[in-house]
Inverse folding.
């Protein structure tokens, strides 16, 4: 499950270190090139909302294999894309077909004992986070030496091989929901309305991931310009540095089990604030970027794991739908962060990017301290 999460989620992030090369390939501005990252996350969010809830109704293995095949075809289409418009369309569908990890996480939570759920979800998330971060390292290197189309083609081949392994090894998982698709979707609204803790977690997660996406969408533009003049392989190397965040995932889950999710979330938000404070210096000092990347990734993942551990404990038979509500908000935040990041870079360069990222983290802090706190605490009690 951990390996699958890492390889599939990488599809969404291969494009980020390649945005500069993609823009030059099609003759579009940096702000337009950043739309590739945005539209991919929009597709992922649409799948989260419309398809992932089916994990509570349909047999998960079959659904996962169908999505794997779709991901392979869409990655191949992106590698072939003759125009920027075709690439945008393929990127949207790549996002749609790459939500497999959000079907696997509820399965892992279902298999885990209550007292270890946070730790086990954290272990599965380690694979997811390694995929998110190392995808940038791999794609940056491949893009610099073989071209961005080769990266998408290689991703398509990886999806075919992974689909074969999943068909062989992934166990079947029987659903619990017996109603219609319409009633399944309606239940998303019911769960959101009835569970203030779910709403609060979704708001915190979405704003934190927006702050995360602001940085990663624009990093390549900073590194390719003055004073650095690096290529995409160096931008991708920052993903390897940020993989330190993956090491924090099991620890964050264990902390959520022992000290409570709110404690781990406070630590995560504090680290993200510190990260952006340091990265204001990143336009002149590469060391500030390195330290900031580590702190930001650890902080964002600590809040994310704690949020997921908390929502999975609410209604066991509805974990796919709970995850849908949370992750839809999460990736809406990511898409907004990518869009705002491109705008902030165009109008404020790196100081504007840091201010935008810090603004989203501040919203997460306000949500954690003020939004629905009393009702959420009553719900836990």
């Amino acid at each position: 499950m951990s390996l699958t999460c890492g390889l599939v989620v990488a599809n969404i992030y291969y494009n980020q270190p390649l945005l500069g090369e993609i823009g030059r390939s099609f003759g579009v501005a940096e702000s337009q090139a950043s739309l590739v990252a945005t539209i991919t996350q929009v597709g992922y969010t649409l799948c989260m909302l419309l398809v992932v809830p089916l994990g509570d109704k349909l047999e998960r293995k079959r659904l996962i294999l169908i999505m794997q095949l779709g991901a392979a075809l869409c990655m191949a289409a992106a590698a072939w894309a003759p125009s920027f418009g075709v690439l945008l369309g393929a990127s949207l569908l790549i996002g749609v077909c790459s939500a497999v990890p959000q079907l696997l996480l509820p399965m892992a939570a279902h298999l885990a004992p209550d007292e270890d759920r946070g730790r086990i979800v954290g272990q599965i998330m380690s694979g997811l986070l390694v995929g998110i971060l190392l995808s940038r390292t791999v794609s940056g290197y491949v893009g610099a030496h073989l071209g961005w189309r080769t990266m998408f083609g290689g991703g398509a081949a990886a999806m075919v091989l992974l689909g074969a392994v999943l068909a062989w090894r992934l166990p079947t998982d029987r659903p619990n929901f017996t109603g219609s698709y319409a009633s399944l979707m309606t239940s998303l609204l019911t769960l959101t309305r009835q569970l203030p803790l779910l709403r609060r977690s979704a708001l915190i997660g979405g704003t934190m991931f927006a702050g995360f996406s602001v940085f990663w969408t624009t990093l390549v533009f900073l590194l390719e310009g003055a004073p650095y003049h690096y290529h995409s392989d160096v931008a991708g190397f920052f993903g390897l540095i940020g993989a330190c965040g993956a090491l924090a995932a099991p620890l964050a889950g264990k902390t959520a089990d022992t000290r409570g999710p709110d404690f781990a979330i406070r630590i995560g938000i504090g680290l993200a604030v510190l990260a952006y404070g340091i990265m204001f210096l990143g336009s002149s000092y590469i060391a500030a970027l390195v330290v900031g990347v580590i702190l930001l990734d650890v902080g964002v993942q600590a809040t994310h794991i704690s949020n997921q551990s908390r929502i999975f404990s609410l209604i066991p038979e509805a974990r796919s739908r709970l995850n849908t509500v949370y992750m839809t908000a999460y990736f809406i935040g990511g898409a907004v962060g990518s869009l705002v990041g491109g705008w902030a870079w165009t109008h404020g360069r790196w100081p504007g990017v840091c201010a935008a990222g810090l603004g989203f983290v501040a919203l997460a802090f306000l949500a954690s301290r003020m939004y629905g706190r009393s009702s959420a605490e009553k719900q836990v009690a």
Remarks:
- The domain at 2-380 is CATH 1.20.1250.20 (Growth Hormone; Chain: A;).
- Confidence is low (pLDDT under 50) at residues 375-381.
- The longest helix spans residues 319-370.
